[in-house]
Every structure is written in structure tokens, then in C-alpha cells.
Amino acid sequence: MKKIAIIGVGHMGGAILTGLAKTKKYQLLAENHVNKRVSQLTDKYNCQLVYSISDLAKLIPDLVVITTPAAATMEIVQKLTILNKDTIIVSAAAGHSLKDYQAKLAGYQIARCIPNIPVSVNSGLTGIYYPDDLAPAAKDFINEVFHDLGEVVEVAEEQLSIVGTIAGCGPAFVDVFMDALADSGVLNGLARELANQIAAGMVKGAAQLALDSHLHPALLKDQVCSPGGTTIKGVTSLEENGFRHAVIEAVNAANQN
Ligand SMILES: NC(=O)C1=CN([C@@H]2O[C@H](COP(=O)(O)OP(=O)(O)OC[C@H]3O[C@@H](n4cnc5c(N)ncnc54)[C@H](OP(=O)(O)O)[C@@H]3O)[C@@H](O)[C@H]2O)C=CC1
Ligand SMILES: O=C(O)[C@@H]1CCC=N1
């Protein structure tokens, strides 16, 4: 069984750990500060937790996934030179270029990715940048792991930021949308739980239809808007209130780093 280590078991690291645990394909390792939240999670998923990079190195992971805050990442990366040279490293931390990693980890196979939080339910979308000189076996293994967590989109490094903003930050934007939909349900007398269920189920179905049909979203929208009907009145209200502009501005705001 291949060993996968997560460094920094926060929201993202925990989501990856959770999704990978469900596959039962890998031996899972984790490194974090001493933290009850983390030990509870690693206990739940039978994942070996260590508190230092030197202890992690002794376990000889095949793949290390870095999910630490950007500000802490380079300090941690510096310590990774004690890992076995065959260890593949993939960083999910935003804010550092591949060159930054290569400068500190000469000779290692390294890639960058931006996953999203639905990896915890194996329905994620991960943008990955593979440098040209990455060994095919390393690329194949990273691909396999992130395919186990959902969809994978291979992108150039300069596209990783915007892909990561839409896919990585996007779940939060959709969550705000779902919460607002549920609020409107509650305003109209629905119980909160039912309103949440309806909002999430609707978003899931609309996304599935878009994926399965490959139709442009505008055409899908047209299918719902009956002439003179209720939906076009709602769409008109969204346009009047700058919904599209608000979404584009949100992505632009999040993409500034
Ligand atoms: N959240 C998301 O949806 C996504 C996040 N990312 C990226 O993932 C990274 C983490 O984000 P997120 O999970 O949201 O943040 P969190 O704050 O939830 O998690 C960070 C984790 O890293 C741990 N940590 C901090 N410093 C160290 C260290 N020196 N050594 C080991 N572990 C450390 C923290 O431990 P402790 O809490 O004990 O201090 C915590 O468990 C960021 O770089 C972010 O850009 C990328 C895509 C999506
Ligand atoms: O909020 C953040 O900075 C990270 C990057 C993508 C999603 N979460």
C-alpha cells in the first residue's frame, strides 16, 4: 500500500484525508502541531499522526501533500530535504510558485495543485500544474490520487491561480448562494433544514445537468424560463441587482494575490 502524508491537517488537509480514507487504497500519514481536532480526525480515519517533519521522514511516505497556510509553507518546505529523494511532493498551498519549491527542494519530483473542499466527499475538482520535467510515474501517481478525490484539470502554472479561485474558492460562493436561497425559503415559511436540503439538492441537480448535457449555461437557463413565466421575472431581478457582476467581481477580488 502506498503511503500518502498530509502536512497541515486543517480544512483542506482534513478534506483530502477524509476523501482518501474512503478509498481504502492508501496508508495515510499526517503531520501537524499538537491539536485535539487533528488527532480526533486522524484517529477516526486510522491515520498515523506525527508532530515533526523528522518523524514523518522516518515513515518514508511515497507522496507528501502540503496543505499548510501560505505564510508557514516555505519554512516547512525547507525542512523537507530530509525526506527520501523518491518522495513525490505536491503542494496545495496557494501563493508560491513551483520555482520557489524547486529552489528549496532540488532533485525532488514536485507539482502544484489547488483542490477544493468537496474532495472530502470524493467530488472535488483539483487544478494541477505538472512541470514538463516531472517524471511520468510521479505524474501518474499524483493523477491517480486526485482522481480518487474527484475531477482533475491539468493547467499551466499561470492558470492555476484563476482555476484555484473559481474551483477552490467557488464552493464558498455557492454556499453563500445556497444560504440565501434557504433564507428565502425560511422567509416564506419553510423549516430551515428543509430549505437547506432543497437549495443543495437543486444546486447538485443543476450542476449534474450542466455536466451531463454539455449545454451552455445560458441554454440551460432558457429551458427553465417559460415565456411570460415566473423564472424570467426572477432572472430579470438578478440582472437588475447586478448578480453576474457581483460574481465576476468576487472572483476578481479573490484572485488578487
Ligand atoms: N480551504 C480550502 O478550501 C483550500 C485551501 N487551500 C490551501 O490550503 C492551505 C491550508 O488552508 P486551510 O486548510 O483552509 O487552512 P487551515 O487553517 O484550516 O489549516 C492549516 C493547517 O495547517 C496547520 N499548520 C500550520 N502551521 C503548520 C506547520 N508549521 N506545520 C504543520 N502544520 C501546520 C494548522 O495547524 P493548527 O491548526 O494546529 O495550527 C492547520 O491544521 C492554504 O495554503 C490554502 O491556500 C487550497 C485550496 C482550497
Ligand atoms: O481562501 C483561501 O485562501 C484558500 C485558497 C482556495 C480556497 N481557499
Automatic annotation (TrEMBL):
Identify the residues that the record assigns to the Pyrroline-5-carboxylate reductase catalytic N-terminal domain, covering every copy: 3-95
Which enzyme type, at the first EC level?
oxidoreductase
Q: Which Pfam families match?
A: F420_oxidored, P5CR_dimer
User: Would you indicate the residue range of the signal peptide?
Assistant: none
The residues that the entry says bind NADP(+) are I7, G8, V9, G10, H11, M12
Cellular component (GO) terms are:
cytoplasm
Q: In which pathway does it act?
A: Amino-acid biosynthesis; L-proline biosynthesis; L-proline from L-glutamate 5-semialdehyde: step 1/1
Listed under GO biological process in this entry are:
L-proline biosynthetic process
* Residue intervals of the Pyrroline-5-carboxylate reductase dimerisation domain: 157-256
Q: Which family, according to the similarity comment? A: Belongs to the pyrroline-5-carboxylate reductase family.
What HAMAP family does the database record attribute to this sequence?
A: P5C_reductase
Q: What is this protein called?
A: Pyrroline-5-carboxylate reductase
State the species of origin: Lactobacillus pasteurii DSM 23907 = CRBIP 24.76
Give the classification, highest ranks: Bacteria, Bacillati, Bacillota, Bacilli, Lactobacillales
